[in-house]
Amino acid sequence: MEDATMDKLLARALRRVQKPGRYTGGEWNAIRKDWKGIDVKMVFAFPDVYEVGMSHLGLQILYSVVNRRPDALLERVFAPWTDMEEQMRNTGLPLFSLESRRPLRDFDIIGFTLQYELSFTNILNMLDLGGLPLRRADRAGGGYPLVVAGGPCSFNPEPLADFIDVFIIGEGEDAVNDLLDMYKERRRLRDDRRQLLLDLAAIDGFYVPSLYRVEYNEEGKVASVLPADTGVPATVKKRALTDLDRAQYPVRPLVPVIEAVHDRAMLEVQRGCTRGCRFCQAGVIYRPVREKEPESLLRQAGEMLQSTGWGEISLTSLSTSDYTMIRPLVSELTNRHGAGGVNISLPSLRVDAFSVDLAGEVQKVRRSSLTFAPEAGTQRLRDVINKGVTEENLLEAVSAVFAGGWQAVKLYFMIGLPTETDVDLEGIADLARRVLNKGRGLVRSPGRLKVTVSVSSFVPKSHTPFQWEPQDSLEELRRKQSYLRQRLRGKGLAFNWHDPEGSLLEAVLSRGDRRLGASIEAAWRRGCRFDGWSEHFSPDRWGRAFEETGVDPVSYANRRYRHQDTLPWDHISAGVSKKYLELEHSRALAGEITPDCRAGKCPGCGLCPSLEIKPRLAGGETVAPLRDTLQ
Q1: How confident is the model at residue 629 (pLDDT cuts 50, 70, 90)?
Q2: What is the model's pTM?
Q3: Phi-psi region of 36 (alpha: psi -120 to 50; beta: other; left: phi over 0)
Q4: pLDDT classification of 631: cutoffs 50, 70, 90
Q5: For residues 559-563, average pLDDT
Q6: Residue 560: per-residue pLDDT
Q7: Averaged over 333-346, what is the pLDDT?
Q8: DSSP E strands, 230-378
Q9: Do 277 and 284 form a contact (C-beta atoms < 8 A)?
């Protein structure tokens, strides 16, 4: 399509959509390179709307890493909202990148990020709007871009295996350079697509589904996923950085042109978590913990504020208050930038008084609400999930909150956890009322006091100790929500819950195998888009898609695996041994806790030695890693 025609169609479309700023580009710190002078052209595709995608730190990191190279460029594209899709389909306007407004078909590589399973139909929709065949087999010989995907959901890539050429398993800062180098070299040698795929498969962190064959047993379960070519590894190992201080970090991040979900400077203080919650996939796939030096963080914070004009710094990680030097870091950031009106925020806090004290320190400039996640209502169940939080911890924390002047607290819980009973549900209501009563005795205006309880449904995830456990049935999840709704009534209490149908679909896709590809495509063809948005999610359409393709979704979500079973994702390694996960699963069912490895004892997951990392203890010293004796 000619540039003039493209510009004309776009101008017409932007007059007819709700938020034209989603599609205009031109952000502060955006990079636009000379298209003709670049060897490898890549587009980062985020399968959700602009406001969500622009809040993703991974986008900012990869944008900085790739565009630092003189031989490559990285542009951006986001899922168009339904009003924009209608304009595009009516006029023939192809899905395009924001920087150069080039159709996706013009790029060498399209890189999707897989942040959540309910975005899968958006991936197919973006490929279609970009003029590409959906299935990788139909793109093999047509000069189409290489379609790559990475992110948390790539740790079970099988449901999307029919659509994606290459998955990047693990952290992408180094892997993306390997991808670009290999693509550039194979094109220079005029090798075909198959040779490129074979070469990528030989590198740690690259999974090429076309080079593996899947076999099923008589029960309909996956029996094996094996290499179909020589030189292809049986197990794909994840990529992980060993030194965050030396890694490229976006100190000139893109500033959104419209309000984003998180419109602030994101300062990653550490990566990984040592808490060991047994339901948490992020706590496994981002292991081990790697901290940045305070000097690096102070320098990066100053450069980001100078290059963006933002008035808030968010200290991001899975558990920010676990960062060894968190208090002196917060103090120094406040001293340097607080007088200029810059707020420091902590998105993840432990359930303890230290975290509350820390929150009071960072919210001297602007005070907001505080959120804690006990996850379960009884100590028995908190021990099962290895949460490491007691009722005493929570009450001590909220006492400090209310005494410090806060009027509202949010509590997050999960229902449907393994071994849960109604006693545990009653514990949620009891705990919420204890928190409310504690606040009434401490705040100046008890009438304004508010305790909000939010519950989500447990979704078993790959590479966790609960990967073998089933999800509760829809009927049981609805019953549990109703049970809590009746018990969380009264002044000062609020109750929020998640749609159980969405949680069911998430479980199906998170535990699925390749046979789900047909169901995902059928759902997309029936109009499924933005399944993570309640106003667009359609259980009926998904139900008809599963029926049409002969798939029973309940058999995926509610299936209980045995330890000896082959799991659909067993050929993907998160670095933590399966035997360790089995041991943690057995400990969970026995109600036994596993201490945080920062307490001084390595639990033996086996990852730190393989990466030659010495994890820090709470006091800042290091502990020599122990080798996994379970392998």
Answers
A1: very low
A2: 0.94
A3: alpha
A4: very low
A5: 96
A6: 96
A7: 89
A8: 236-237, 265-268, 270-271, 290-291, 312-316, 343-345, 370-375
A9: no
Secondary structure (3-state) at 447: helix
Give the count of beta carbons closer than 10 Å to the beta carbon of residue 85: 18
Distance CA 17, CA 85 (A): 10
Q: 99: closest CA among 80, 125, 122, 73?
A: 73
- The Cα–Cα gap between 432 and 455 comes to 12
Neighbours of 185 (CB within 10 A): 12
DSSP state of 211: G
Look at 597 and 390; give whichever has higher pLDDT: 390
Can you tell me the distance from the alpha carbon of 501 to that of 118, in angstroms, rounded to the nearest whole number? 11
Written as six digits, the tokens of 434 are 């204890």
More confident residue, 10 or 349: 10
Residue 485, pLDDT above cutoff 90: yes
Kind of pairing between the strands at 222-227 and 212-216: antiparallel
Q: Please state, in angstroms and as integers, the Cα–Cα distance from residue 621 to each residue in 358, 594, 617, following that order.
A: 22, 21, 6
Q: Let me know: does 137 contact 208? Beta carbons within 8 Å.
A: no
Q: Which domains does the chain have, with CATH numbers?
A: 3-237 (3.40.50.2300), 369-515+551-577 (3.30.750.200)
With 60 as the cut, is the pLDDT of residue 500 above it? yes
CA count, 13 A, side-chain hemisphere, 226: 6
d(CA 518, CA 532) in angstroms, rounded, equals 20
Provide the token pair at 122.
């958006």
pLDDT at res. 620: 45
| DSSP one-letter string for 575-589 | SS-HHHHHHHHHHHH
Q: Phi-psi category of 170—alpha, beta or left, where left has phi over 0 and alpha has psi -120 to 50?
A: left
Instruction: Give the C-alpha separation, 179 to 169, whole Å.
Output: 12
The predicted model gives 105-133 an average pLDDT of 97
Residue type, 58: G
The amino acid that residue 518 corresponds to is A
For 27-80, the DSSP string reads -BT-----GGG-SEEEEEEESS-HHHHTT-HHHHHHHHHHHTSTTEEEEEEEPP
Which whole number is the average pLDDT over 19-35? 96
**pLDDT bracket for residue 460 (50, 70, 90):** very high
Q: Hey, what are 247's tokens?
A: 């890694």
Greatest Cα pair distance, the chain, in angstroms, is 75
CB 40 within 8 A of CB 70: no
Mean pLDDT of 159-186: 97
Whole-angstrom CA distances from 148 to 59, 180, 274, 282, 604 are 14, 11, 30, 21, 33
Q: Is the pLDDT of residue 625 over 60?
A: no
pLDDT at 369: 66
Distances (CA, A) of 395 to 68, 351, 370, 385, 437: 49, 9, 14, 20, 10
The label of the residue with tokens 């420091």 reads 344
Distances in Å between the Cα of 324 and the Cα atoms of 290, 345, 621 are 11, 17, 9
Average pLDDT over residues 555-567: 96
* Distance (Å, whole) CA 554 – CA 465: 21
594-617: buried (b, 16+ CB within 10 Å) or exposed (e) per residue?
bebbbeeebbbbbbbbbeebebbe
Length of the chain: 631
- Residues 157, 462 contacting (CB under 8 angstroms): no
